[in-house]
Design brief:
single chain; about 260 residues; mainly alpha; DNA polymerase, domain 1; hpI Integrase, Chain A; 3-stranded antiparallel sheet; 10 helices; 3 strands; about 50% helix; elongated
Length: about 260
């Protein structure tokens, strides 16, 4: 068998077992197809050595340290199964070069910087560009993220009955997932939590509620069609905003570092 054939068999096994989420298996497949199989796909599994693995990983190091790390992890997991099945005597990934997760610096927001972020959002919303005019969603999304520090998926899964305006708090009970074949849906969290809302976030949500129409899924941040928004679409819009404003370092992690208030 070739490495490519082993990869196909492994992915099929994972989908049949049903132990992992489809999003996880889809990511494994993406890593294999894009980062591993172009280098190793035609190699015979019985001939695979640590030198082969090292050569493939070193080729990835000049492109992306994160991609290199993912390639090693996924290939190692796949070949562990090949060892258990008797196709390999030992896993050549285990003796290959060390790959470390790149460290990212999270820049804490200075007191004046949230206003700079809001100004950048307003400029982006009012910008003339091809296609449909941008909505005010991003301004509301940023304000609620500033006030809660929640992850984007958690924010997009927010429903109006999760918001308690009187007590000024919000219940975080789910996240949004997007899967091939299943679309975008709301997935409950294993553990809910409640977060206290600052006044500016309460005001943003009240204005949004006043402007919103009847959405059957009760979403605070639905699409124009009344469905759950995808996380990658919000991430893409935020990258556009921050890059144009020279705020590349402002990430959702920076919001979380500065806030997160538990009721």
């Amino acid at each position: 068998m070739t490495v490519g054939e082993v990869a196909d068999a492994w992915l099929t096994m994972l989908r049949t077992e049903g132990r992992l989420e489809n999003t996880t298996i889809n990511e494994y497949e993406r890593v294999l197809r894009k980062l591993v199989l172009p280098e190793l796909g035609t190699a015979r599994i019985a001939d695979l050595t640590t030198d082969h693995i090292n050569a493939a990983l070193e080729g990835r190091s000049t492109q992306s340290a994160n991609g290199q790390r993912k390639a090693k992890i996924v290939t190692g997991a796949m070949l562990d199964v090949a060892v258990v099945c008797g196709a390999l005597a030992s896993n050549p990934v285990r003796g290959s070069i060390s790959v470390h997760r790149p460290k990212t610096q999270v820049h804490p927001l200075a007191p004046s910087e949230p206003d700079a972020v809001r100004a950048a959002v307003r400029a982006w919303v009012n910008e003339t560009r091809p296609g449909p005019r941008a909505t005010g969603d991003m301004a509301d999304i940023i304000d609620v993220m500033f006030g809660t520090g929640v992850r984007i998926g958690e924010l997009l899964a927010l429903r109006w009955h999760d918001v308690d305006f009187e007590a000024k708090r919000v219940r975080i009970a789910a996240t949004v997932k997007t899967e091939t074949g299943s679309g975008t849906y709301r997935k409950p969290l294993a553990k809910e939590r409640t977060i206290k809302l600052p006044d500016f976030a309460v005001a943003a949500l009240r204005q949004r509620l006043w402007r919103s129409g009847d959405v059957h899924i009760d979403a605070v941040f639905p699409t124009r069609n009344g469905t759950w928004q995808q996380v990658n679409n919000v991430e893409r819009r935020w990258r556009q905003i921050r890059n144009r404003a020279g705020l590349n370092w402002v990430t959702p992690e920076a919001f979380r570092q500065n806030v997160v208030r538990k009721a």
